[in-house]
Amino acid sequence: MTRCDPGHKLAGMTTAFVRNQWYVAAYGREIGRELFTRTVCGESILFWRTGNGAVTAMSDRCVHRRFPLSEKPSHLVGDTVVCGYHGFTYGADGVCVAVPGQTRVPRTARLRAYPIVEQDSFVWVFIGDPTLAATTRIPRAPWLDKPGWTVVAGMEPLAARASLLVDNLLDLSHETYLHGGYIGTPEVAETPITTEVDEEAGIVYVSRRMADAACPPFYSNSTGLTGRITRWQDIEYTPPCLYLLHSRIAPVGVLPNDDGSDPDAFHVEVVYAITPETEHSTHDFWAVARDFALDDQEVSDYLEKSNRTVVLQDVAALDTLEQVIATEPDGYQELSINIDTGGLAARRMLARMRAK
Amino acid sequence: MSAGLLRVTWLPGDDILRGRCHCGAETEADDPVAIWEWLLAHPDHPGKS
Question: Does A4 sit within 8 Å of B5, measured CB to CB?
Fold first, then answer.
């Protein structure tokens, strides 16, 4: 066994937010002409679409007496939102345009507006100094909104800090134990990984390539493969929010062609957006995009049900873990071994971003 | 190796990790914490002559 470092402490398990970054706040389909609220990095944000379809985001607290604008009887009138308590009325830019009983609107009566970008089926919101939004990268997940791919997706509330989900997703050896019978097989935990950190791009890569592995039900039932498989798991994590798992499944020995084409393999892009809600809770967005059986609703239904089950297995484990570590005294210790190489890299990158 | 790229390879059939810095320096260890500390010490990798 690998010698472990018994002195390693949970320095990466902080609950502090990484600010001045883009986070996934919602799927685009969640936001329409009804007032919608979601808390991101501790900030309660109100979302709605204008008459021409643009998403707006502003503080979900009326400047007058802090009534939540997402709460009935607050409502939309055209492209304005009217507070349900005293009628303060705000435009799509968050500026107050009317107050009750007087013509003068206080100059400071404006809601904090958030930069928003709709991309790859997600609504991204910028948390931090809005003047930095335009120059801060939004990572891509193009398969979620691209011809030739079929997507199932969801979001599960996680009662645990975001760093626990990062740890979970960067080390897929847990599939063997936590997700056996769904996506886990013995080969996942047995196969060594290669970890790369691109310091300039700010990306962590973890690659696990299994040449001859059992096919878990998740893939056998969706692809129709029945024998042993070549299974590649190539993780690409762009902290703090976007995690991609490029999954390639093929019969044993079937590899991509020299020109990069790969017609005999099945490709699944598993996407997670890891968005802190509070310091101890997280929005766990998940999506599974595939390039096969595109119009097969049974496959879609199966993958949606199975992946949600897997996500809920993680949620149950991490909710428990949060309860445990939240009550541990400062300075408690943990142990890291080879499987944790990617997770440790992600922790260090997040810590550096947090310190900026 | 491209600028800024750090790589840790888990050697097949062994428990040893090999770390390679973007400057070309390499080390081996059996502990991922030690590997990252060594890599992130660039350009002052411990034990580098």
Answer: no
Question: Which architecture characterizes domain A21-135 according to CATH?
Answer: 3-layer Sandwich (2.102)
Q: Do B33 and A8 make contact, defined as CB atoms within 8 angstroms?
A: yes
A256: preceding bond cis by omega (within 30 degrees): no
pLDDT in tens, A207-216: 999 999 999 9
**Interatomic CA distance for residues A78 and A253, integer angstroms:** 60
What are the sequence ranges of the domains in chain A? Answer: 21-135, 142-355
d(CA A57, CA A49): 9
Give yes or no for a cis peptide into A73 (omega within 30° of 0). yes
Question: Which ipTM was obtained for this model?
Answer: 0.92
The answer to whether A341 contacts chain B (CB < 8 Å) is yes
Characterize the bridge pairing of strands B5-10 and A281-290.
Answer: unpaired
Domain A142-355, classified CATH 3.90.380.10, yes or no: yes
A130-189 pLDDT, tens digit per residue, is 999 999 999 999 999 999 999 999 999 999 999 999 999 999 999 999 998 899 999 988
**CB neighbours of A115 closer than 8 A, spacing ≥ 6?**
A57, A125, A126, A130, A133, A134
pLDDT of residue A13: 65
Whether chain B has a CB inside 8 Å of the CB on A197: the answer is: yes
Instruction: With a cut of 50, say whether residue A203 has pLDDT above it.
Output: yes
**A136 near B CB under 8 A:** no
| Interface check A198 vs B, CB under 8 A | yes
- Chain B residues with CB inside 8 Å of A5's CB? 31, 33-34
B10/A193 CB distance under 8 A: yes
- Long-range pairs for A297-303: beta carbons < 8 A, 24 or more residues apart: A299/A222, A300/A150, A300/A152, A302/A221, A302/A222, A303/A152, A303/A218, A303/A222
Domain that holds residue B22: 1-49
Structure tokens given for A341: 């190489």
Extract the runs of DSSP E, i.e. beta strands, from A20-69.
Answer: 21-27, 36-40, 43-49, 55-59
Split into its structural domains, chain B has a count of 1
DSSP string, A216-265: PHHHHHHH---S-EEEEEEEEEETTTEEEEEEEEEETT----TTS--TTS
3-state secondary structure of A297: helix
N-to-C CA span, chain B: 21
